Amino acid sequence: MNKSEINNIILITFGSTFLAAGVVFFLYPAKIITGGTPGLGLLTHYLTGISIGKAMLLINIPLLLIGKKYLTNGFALRTIYSMVATSVIVDLLIYYIEFPAIQSLLLSTLYGGVCVGVGIGLVLKANASAGGTTIIARIIASKTQLKPGSVIMILDACIIISVGVIFKNFEGVLWSIITIYTSAIVIDKIVTGGVSEKLVNIVSDKANEISHAIRTEFNRDGTILTGQNLSRRYDKSIIFVVINVRRVIPIRQLVLSIDKDALIIVMEASEMTGTSRRYD
Q: Which of 51-55, 238-242, 247-251, 270-274 has the lowest mean pLDDT?
């Protein structure tokens, strides 16, 4: 086994532990449902009495078998380990760990969402899946025009709506939505590395002056692209530079001080590798 796979196993183990802790310590005692397989596991437990861990495993196995041809061998094996580890840890925590009772639904909702988000994020970082709904999303996305993220959102909505209908608990549905939203934010931060950079595109006739000022004032490098306007009669220079979010306003002020008619477009740099420091 190479070093990369060992790192993946470690990430999956920690991720499964966080996911299980979020479900057992925060969501289960407060009777709050989250999305994905953990949510289905909780729902199955409430309806049948079967343990949450076993319910999650019973849900995941057929979904994994159905989606096997859509997964690579490595991804499938890592996913199996994630599913089994999460299910086992969930039941172990319930039976052997006595966690202090939390009276606040808000705290249970937020901390449960954070733990679940951290767990799923770590599993995704290890190039695996934490549950069967991701597999369903891949299958449906391959057969339709829907994106996997949209399918997962629809499935999660179906899960929490089912809870509201079955238990006639609309307030619980609202708490569940907060949990899912919190998890989604945490997952995004972990998967993308919590990038705090912005993508700044500057269109100006004074590109050379602006580029020199950015290099001097902000110690950043960038790229100058050449283009034309829609009539193809005028050439344009577009400056492409990555900057820390705290320096967006200073760079905007700098650009406008040089060219008040410059077009500035600020975009989210959701994921970034490498560096944009200045090179001489």
A: 270-274
Over the Cα atoms of the chain, what is R_g? 24
Q: What is the pTM of this model?
A: 0.76
Q: In this predicted model, what pLDDT tens digit does every residue of 108-122 receive, in sequence order?
A: 999 999 999 899 889
Domains of the chain from N-terminus onward:
3-192 (no CATH), 197-268 (3.30.70.120)
Position 143, amino acid: K
Collapsing DSSP to helix, strand or coil, 195 comes out as coil
For residue 70, give the H/E element and its range.
none
Distances (CA, A) of 74 to 13, 38, 127: 16, 23, 9
Report how far residue 117's alpha carbon sits from residue 189's, in angstroms, rounded to the nearest whole number. 9
Do 242 and 269 contact (CB within 8 A), yes or no? yes
CB of 85 closer than 8 Å to CB of 12: yes
Quick: pLDDT tens for 142-199: 677 776 666 777 888 888 888 788 778 788 889 988 998 898 888 877 876 666 678 8
How many angstroms separate the Cα of 69 from the Cα of each of 48, 56, 65, 73, 139?
Answer: 31, 21, 8, 9, 10
3-state secondary structure 94-119: HHHCCCCCCCCHHHHHHHHHHHHHHH
Amino acid code (one letter) for 189: K
Strand 235-244's sheet: what is its strand order?
Answer: 222-228, 235-244, 197-204, 263-268
Q: Vertex 272, ends 206 and 79: CA angle to 5°? A: 160
